[in-house]
Amino acid sequence: MDLCHVPATREKGWYLALMAPNVKGPNYAWLDPSRLYCHPQALQDCVAELLQPFQGDAIDMVAGIDAMGFILGAAAAATLQKGFLAIRKAGHLCVQTVAQPYTDYSGREKLMEVRTDAISPGLRILLVDQWVETGGTMRAAIELVERLGGVVAGVAAICMENSEGGKWIQERYKCSHCVPPRLQPHFDQHRLGWD
């Protein structure tokens, strides 16, 4: 799909066709959604669809997860006119932090951290990431927010796979994603629904 073309009819998730499959091997995610961020209408529609279930909900801040969650999270924060908090991979913040170990989608053990001076007890935070595959990264972010006394107001990602970790999150938190039901089984099996 051309990066300037806007379809006459824009169904939910129309912009997912802008994503590109992995061509570099097993150390990378199976799909790269970042091309849709280059398309102005796709980015706007994606953020609007992610935020739609939270209309009218109390949200005090948006937190994005390092690194691709920063793009969607910052766009969501700007749309909601809320502040943005970066939840980082360990070792990047020069201020007081709390850390949480986790296992990412590739099975690698990592450490995530967040600054301690941004989350006060009761602060309602919308967590945003690009993708929830195994749920390990998002679950670590949830644990950091809750450890500091924050409340997870919701979880939003382009796709939330129906993995064990993805289901755990969806059973406990209000969630939003952009994948239409007809494509979800394809994405859960790491296949594009239009190929």
Kindly report how far apart the N and C termini lie.
Answer: 13 Å
Major sheet details: 7 strands, mixed
Query: Which stretches are low in confidence, meaning pLDDT under 50 for 5 or more residues running?
Result: none
Q: In order across it, which strands form the biggest sheet? A: 5-6-4-3-7-8-9
Please state the structural category.
alpha/beta
Q: Name the average pLDDT.
A: 95
Structural shape:
globular
> Helical percent range?
25-40%
Instruction: Give the tally of β-strands.
Output: 9
By DSSP (H or I, 4+ residues per run), the number of helices equals 5
What does this molecule look like?
There is one protein chain. The protein is of the alpha/beta class. It is built from five helices and nine strands; from the N terminus they run E-E-H-E-H-E-E-E-E-H-E-H-E-H. The strands form two sheets. Strands 5-6-4-3-7-8-9 form a seven-stranded mixed beta sheet, with helices on both faces. Helix 3 links the parallel strand 7 and strand 8. Helix 1 packs across helix 2. It is globular and about 45 Å long. It starts with 19 loop residues before the first strand and ends in a 7-residue tail after the last helix.
